[in-house]
Design brief:
Blueprint lengths: L1 H10 L14 E5 L8 E2 L1 E2 L6 E8 L10 E8 L2 E7 L5 E3 L1 E2 L4 E4 L1 E8 L4 E7 L3 E5 L8 E2 L1 E2 L6 E8 L10 E8 L2 E7 L5 E3 L1 E2 L4 E4 L1 E8 L4 E7 L3 E5 L8 E2 L1 E2 L6 E8 L10 E8 L2 E7 L5 E3 L1 E2 L4 E4 L7 E8 L4 E7 L3 E5 L8 E2 L1 E2 L6 E8 L3 E7 L2 E7 L5 E3 L1 E2 L4 E3 L2 E8 L4 E6 L7 E5 L15 E2 L1 E2 L6 E8 L3 E7 L8 E2 L5 E3 L8 E3 L2 E8 L4 E6 L3 E6 L18 E2 L2 E5 L7 E8 L3 E9 L8 E7 L11 E7 L4 E5 L7 E7 L2 E9 H4 L8 E11 L4 E6 L14 E8 L4 E5 L3 E4 L1 E2 L8 E8 L3 E7 L2 E7 L5 E3 L1 E2 L4 E3 L2 E8 L4 E6 ...
């Protein structure tokens, strides 16, 4: 493995022989996007230099009101390559050319990045039908024709239930962009010419193929049938096997039907079936002829024989719903190639010809000579070979075909068994994937293990594959298994244009993807399939049914109908997952107005993500609303933790699945399979079931589960706790880039048994019986702390802790608790001004000012008072050059060296020029809740300030500490500051918070009731959508939150990012704008006026 990676790096700078010749991915950028984003165009499959797209512009996008919307073409979202021209509607754009002036309208745009030729052809926006059938409130969109952008087609079915005025017709119109500003109608049917704001089109009940031309207004409604499917023995007469409507004839349908012996219920060698429309027996066709016949309404079942030639019996089926004519043409199952080139392990699928279902085609490159064969259904039961090359006639179980290395167009005719290999001199080599997931294509066998994409039948440069990565992987695309790693292509997940550089590897998270790659343009895309969830790693979850741990992110909707008929107001189900080394945890919240003992939640877990039938690493467990836990599937002897809890609006459940019992070792970045199902029982058994990703097939196999990705561990909010002193919050030293070590300073006024704990809850706590240092363990014995003032450190990963020496003596000032808030008026009689500012920090003196200061605190604020005796009070410029009092605050007391908003640091100044206006450091924490007064006195001046604790996300209490100093600037000569004195530190207090002293809170309560409330009402709060890339909604349930509340958003270090207030009234919803937050994990803290608190995890994508 190391050799491979070293080779890749060495080859990174070498030019590929398949070097990129096309431009990057092209988009339009301009006034319509504020010159900030690109409207991406689509690269033409046949000509990679040609791009196509549609764009609509109007007056709202014309920022300079010129009557035009200026725009340009550019490549790869970057201005390094851009094209423009002053010509419209056609022209030749050049590098760094002028903006293209585009009048208001909708256009079909083409651009050739090799020649610069472009065209804007006026057309219409997205066309839809709207009318009685959808309450005139929604749009049924039509499909734009690929060759004529003005032509639109679609199908519609209307019936008596949609006829609001019961006049026998359904009225409707065409409109553009879901807007009545542009709409067409006419009184004619089935054909006519619609005009702007014309009459409603009267459409009789039925199903119609609709054609509309938005340039001419011409429309046609052609009566046809609904969606046609096959139903019969082969699917238990219980579902429809859908056919495909012909593009050229809306009455013509076709499909390949694959049958086998297992579908023959009575084992008579015959499969009985019929055609029907819209999954409804009201319109069905049967007949007594085979393989051809004419189906009639309610006719007899069609008798389709099974053959004995292979694993399956296959027919190309065609049906005309207007005439009833049908035809079953015997054909082959899927034909593929296999050979020595892949160790006779794995098949390369061929493509069935569109006009001849028995002709199979493939374009492929073989980089070495190889013996090959054709076979059916990837099975050796039926296979063909011959010693003839490059053409011949295959025989059953014939000799291997001696293929010569090269690139070929391959054909195989199932009727005649003739095969042919014709050299293709233009097609690129085979595109494979190599990475961590397959040991970079080398398993030591000598045969490359690249996972090959499948070449498109129509566009031979386009490749695709659906693939499931069971864990995160680095990855490259490799052409023809190039052993030198020269012809390899990397890039940046999930989409873009690949780079011929082995060092730029895709970082692909585990999951199931539809992957596309073009070997000429090198455009690629990884499209995630199915549902996926990231399960954060946690220290522990108390499986009691209450979703009150802050680690829970209960945001995945379980909403797809799996069985039964849901009522108009079904249950609402959301779930989340978390893990640690021992357990896979699942939490589910169910909103149900009528909870009964039969209500049930089912958890399906595929521990090794193997798919298929259940094995020893899989489990299916149910938990009822009353907490009954039943293991339906699972290894012998497994004990699954489970519990339920009644909530204000339904019930919740928690499950803990032991990894050891499944033989699974979870790792961050790896993946498992999961699905959740919920059944609603209103007293007579389960009426219906909702599912997250799969369906009823979950009961028998695990392939339909969604993806679960094992996420990273977050320590969250760490505190030192004792029931008496409450939670003393510790903080990260962010400047040291250490997110696992927490620090703080605290005065223990007595001996206490303490522990470190997470998120204000004893569910996760660490402790040990050693003091002043040791290694704490989860759930260990309490730490026997003794009286003293300590600088405390704790690492949440290693458990190591210390209670070391803290600042003392003159480095510590005491802030006195006050039960009555002082009036901020400059009268300092409420304070004891016990501290001075006597250290010469800057300038030369002499010190001719006398400074005295003191502070008070209460539950909400810190109050600061200072009096300065100064014979000359003046100011000449910047606040720090004037007579002034400066304050330095390290809000989290991390003393990590730098001032930052993230650490709640700031520098504040009250000066002789700005008077009552408090100056705050621009790059410090925003001070949004304060009041301040400057008062001139007979001997100088006084200042008084109120700073809300919320500015610093600080929970006050006796013995708690912030970093602090205070200074005085003196200006007597009219030329700026003469000197500065400080209480503690030196002239760099403003930039280096390690120089600051401590301000310790004295007297008062150990913690403020509400801010340190240990009871969390998380089960009464739901965040959705979560994860989110924009706004998030807070929904409260029950009667817990019934007052005003303060809402803080903090990051994983505890830093407060945003603050707002809201009023809740039981079942309430409040929306927060989180669009300014960067990607990551955050905590939403809700604190009501009556002390109720909830903390919910929020993920920003």
């Amino acid at each position: 493995m190391k050799k491979i990676l070293l080779l890749m790096v060495l080859m990174a700078g070498m030019a590929s022989f398949n070097a990129m010749s096309q431009c990057g991915q092209v988009g339009l950028i301009g006034e319509m996007t504020g010159w900030a984003d690109d409207v991406m165009m689509t690269r033409d499959m046949g000509n990679p230099d040609l791009f196509n797209g549609f764009i609509s512009v109007d007056t709202t996008m014309d920022s300079d009101a010129s009557g035009f919307v200026d725009m340009k073409f550019r490549a790869n979202h970057d201005w390094a390559i851009n094209w423009g021209s002053a010509d419209f509607p056609t022209g030749i754009a050049v590098q760094d050319g002028a903006n293209i002036p585009v009048p208001y309208g909708t256009y079909a745009v083409t651009f050739n990045c090799a020649t610069g030729d472009y065209s804007f052809a006026e057309t219409c926006g997205a066309i839809s039908l709207i009318g009685e059938f959808n309450g005139w409130a929604d749009d049924l969109f039509l499909t734009r024709d690929g060759n004529n952008p003005d032509k639109w087609t679609g199908t519609i079915t209307v019936d008596t239930t949609m006829d609001g005025d019961a006049n026998g017709v359904i009225e409707m119109k065409f409109r553009a962009n879901s807007d009545w500003g542009t709409n067409w109608g006419a009184a004619d049917f089935p054909t006519g010419i619609a005009v702007q704001n014309g009459a409603n089109i009267p459409v009789p009940y039925g199903t119609y193929a609709v054609d509309f031309n938005c340039a001419s207004g011409e429309y046609t409604f052609t009566a046809t049938c609904g969606n046609i499917g096959l139903i019969g023995e082969f699917n238990g007469w219980a579902a429809d096997y859908w056919m495909t409507r012909s593009i050229d004839n809306p009455d013509a349908w076709s499909v390949i039907l694959t049958l086998n012996d297992a579908m023959d219920g009575n084992a008579d060698g015959i499969i009985e079936l019929k055609f029907r429309a819209n999954s409804d027996w009201g319109t069905n066709w049967g007949g007594d002829g085979f393989p051809t016949g004419v189906g009639v309404q309610d006719g007899p079942n069609i008798l389709v024989p099974l053959d004995e030639l292979g694993v399956t019996t296959d027919y190309a089926v065609s049906f005309n719903c207007a005439t009833g004519e049908y035809n079953f043409i015997a054909t082959s199952g899927n034909i593929s190639m296999i050979g020595a080139f892949n160790n006779w392990n794995g098949d390369v699928p061929m493509h069935r010809d569109a006009s001849n279902p028995n002709l199979w085609k493939l374009t492929r490159s073989w980089y070495a000579d190889s013996e090959v064969k054709f076979r059916e259904n990837a099975d050796w039961t039926v296979n063909w070979g011959n010693s003839a090359w490059p053409s011949g006639v295959g025989t059953d179980n014939g000799a291997n075909i001696p293929l010569v290395a090269g690139t070929y167009d391959v054909t195989f005719d199932f009727n005649t068994l003739a095969y042919n290999f014709t050299t293709n001199a233009t097609a690129c080599g085979e595109v494979g994937m190599v990475g961590d997931f397959n040991t970079w294509g080398d398993d030591g066998s000598g045969t490359p293990t690249d996972v090959y994409l499948v070449r498109d039948a129509m566009y031979p440069s386009q490749f695709s594959l659906t693939y499931n990565f069971t864990s995160s992987t680095l990855l490259l695309f490799r052409i023809d298994a190039d052993p030198t790693f020269t012809d390899v292509w990397g890039g940046y997940f999930p989409s873009g244009q690949a780079i011929n550089d082995a060092a730029v590897q895709f970082n692909v998270p585990g999951g199931k993807y539809f992957i596309t790659y073009n070997c000429v343009s090198h455009d690629f895309n990884f499209e995630r399939l199915g549902n996926a969830i990231i399960a954060p790693q946690v220290f522990a979850i108390n499986v009691d049914g209450n979703l009150n741990e802050t680690d829970w992110v209960i945001n995945q909707p379980v909403s797809a109908l799996a069985e039964g008929t849901a009522p108009e107001t079904p249950i609402e189900v959301f779930f989340g997952a978390a893990w640690n080394a021992e357990y896979m945890y699942v939490g589910v919240d169910v909103t149900d107005a009528n909870v009964t003992a039969g209500d049930i939640v089912e958890v399906f877990f595929d521990g090794n993500k193997s798919g298929g039938a259940y094995d020893a690493s899989d489990v299916h467990v149910t938990v009822t609303s009353d907490g009954t836990v039943t293991v339906i599937q699972g290894p012998a002897g497994i004990t699954v933790l489970g519990a339920s809890s009644t909530t204000a609006n339904g019930y919740s459940i928690e499950v803990g699945i032991p990894f050891a019992a499944l033989g699974v070792t979870p790792e961050t970045g790896a993946q498992a399979g999961i699905d959740i199902m919920a059944g609603d029982d209103n007293g007579s058994g389960v009426d219906y079931r909702l599912v997250w990703n799969g369906g009823m097939q979950d009961y028998t196999e695990t392939s339909s589960f969604g993806d679960l990705n094992y996420g990273v561990l977050s320590c969250g909010c760490i505190s030192v706790h004792n029931a008496t002193i409450g939670d003393v919050i510790l903080r990260n030293q962010l400047a040291f880039d250490n997110t696992t070590t927490y620090v703080g300073t605290y005065q223990l006024d007595n001996a206490y048994d303490v522990a470190f704990r997470k998120d204000g809850s004893s569910t996760v706590s660490w402790s040990a019986n050693t003091f002043p240092a040791g290694t704490a363990t989860l759930g260990g014995p309490m730490i026997p702390a003794t009286t003293g003032r300590y600088r405390i450190t704790f690492d949440c990963i290693t458990g190591e802790y210390t209670f070391g020496d803290a600042l003392s003596g003159d480095a510590v000032a005491m802030s006195t608790y006050t039960p009555d808030a002082p009036v901020i008026d400059g009268n300092l009689s409420e304070y004891t001004l016990a501290y001075g500012s006597e250290i010469l920090a800057a300038g030369t003196g002499p010190i001719n000012n006398t400074v005295t200061w003191g502070t008070l605190w209460d539950a909400d604020n810190l109050y600061i008072a200072a009096h300065v005796v100064d014979a000359v009070v003046e100011g000449t410029g910047n606040p720090w050059d004037n007579d002034a009092v400066e304050m330095y605050v390290d809000g989290d007391n991390s003393k990590d060296g730098t001032y930052s908003a993230a650490s709640f640091d700031t520098q504040l100044i009250m000066d002789a020029i700005n008077l009552d206006s408090l100056w705050a450091k621009a790059d410090g924490v925003p001070i949004t809740d304060e009041s301040s007064v400057w008062l001139a006195t007979s001997d100088g001046y006084s200042i008084e300030i109120r700073l809300a604790w919320s500015n610093f996300d600080f929970a006050p209490g006796k013995g708690r500490t912030i970093g602090w100093s205070l200074g005085n600037n003196d200006s007597d000569l009219g030329v700026g500051r003469d000197y500065q004195t400080v209480w503690y530190g030196n002239g760099n207090d403003w930039s280096d918070n390690t120089l600051l002293g401590d301000l310790e809170l004295a007297g008062g309560p150990y913690f403020v009731d509400g801010l340190d409330e240990h009871v969390l009402y998380n089960a009464n709060v739901v965040l959705y959508p979560n994860p989110t890339a924009g706004n998030v909604n807070i929904r409260t349930t029950g009667d817990v939150f019934n007052s005003k509340a303060v809402i803080f958003i903090s990051d994983i270090t505890g830093r407060s990012i945003a603050k707002t207030t809201a009023s809740f009234n039981g079942y309430s919803t409040v929306q927060l704008n989180t669009g300014e937050l960067t990607k990551g994990v955050y905590f939403v803290n809700i604190l009501s006026e009556d002390g109720k608190r909830a903390v919910k995890k929020l993920i920003i994508q």
